[in-house]
Amino acid sequence: MNFKVDMVRAGTHGRKVVRPMRPRYITIHSTQNYTAGAERHSVALKRGALRSPKTRTGNRIGYLIWHYTVDDSVAIQHMPTTEQGEHADFGGPGNRLSIGIEMCENRGNNLQVTIDHTAMLTAVLMKRNGIPLRNVVPHYHWPRRGRNPPNKNCPHFLLEGGRPGPKWRKFLRHVNMHYQRLN
Ligand SMILES: [Zn+2]
């Protein structure tokens, strides 16, 4: 798997406000964008193209930002894991305490390879940050205050009926297999 660091410039867009973080969780998402892979998401984040309305109970900075985007060829890091992103639950613990990983699902992208790369990256980040498997969670895990439904169907292709089930448990076993290999 190829790793690439291509940070959003400090002080701009999603990194305009630096909020330190000591990560305790890893949150898994899917982009629900069927046209862009990891490179195009990286460009969009660097340009500040992914905006989100800033409201009292919503997005804190007016931009979406997360730590890694993964597709079938590369995992790109957009911001340090020591800074809070804006990808999960506004001012909630998902944003304040977790590393956000987005899986691409653009046409032509191999989803199984993407899931495998994501499992491997997750294992590396668990080891590097001392994060246990039980703290690897789907976006679904973090309720979004003021939204209906509060728990998002994300990453939708690893959930069943909009909630974690056998597919999510299989993903966690996959993460754990990679994690055990690192030890
Ligand atoms: Zn999500």
What are the SSEs and their pairings?
Layout: E1 2-5, E2 25-30, H1 38-47, E3 68-70, E4 74-77, H2 93-97, E5 98-103, H3 111-129, E6 136-138, H4 166-182
Parallel strand pairs: 1-4, 2-5, 2-6, 3-5
Antiparallel strand pairs: 3-4
Helix pairs in contact: 3-4
Bound molecules: zinc ion.
Entry keywords:
alpha/beta, six-stranded mixed β-sheet, 14% strand, binds zinc ion
Can you describe this structure?
This protein has 183 residues and is an alpha/beta fold. The chain has one domain (2-182): Peptidoglycan recognition protein-like (Lysozyme-like). It has helices spanning 38-47, 93-97, 111-129, 166-182, and strands at residues 2-5, 25-30, 68-70, 74-77, 98-103, 136-138. It has a six-stranded mixed beta sheet with strand order 1-4-3-5-2-6, sandwiched between helices. The chain binds zinc ion. Zinc ion (ZN) binds next to loops. Zinc ion is lined by residues 29, 139, 152, 154.
**CATH architectural category:** 3-Layer(aba) Sandwich
- Label the structural class: alpha/beta
Q: Shape, please?
A: globular
Percentage of β-strand residues: 5-15%
**What is the helix content?**
25-40%
Distance between the termini: 19 Å
Q: Quick one: biggest sheet?
A: 6 strands, mixed
Give the strand line-up of the largest sheet. Answer: 1-4-3-5-2-6
Whole-number radius of gyration?
15 Å
Top-tier CATH class: Alpha Beta
Q: What is the overall pLDDT average?
A: 96
Overall tally of structural domains: 1
What binds here, in terms of ligands, is:
zinc ion
> In terms of per-residue confidence, which ranges show pLDDT below 50 for 5 or more consecutive residues?
none
Q: What string gives the helices and strands in order?
A: EEHEEHEHEH
Number of helices: 4
* CATH topology descriptor: Lysozyme-like
Within CATH, the superfamily carries the name: Peptidoglycan recognition protein-like
Number of strands: 6
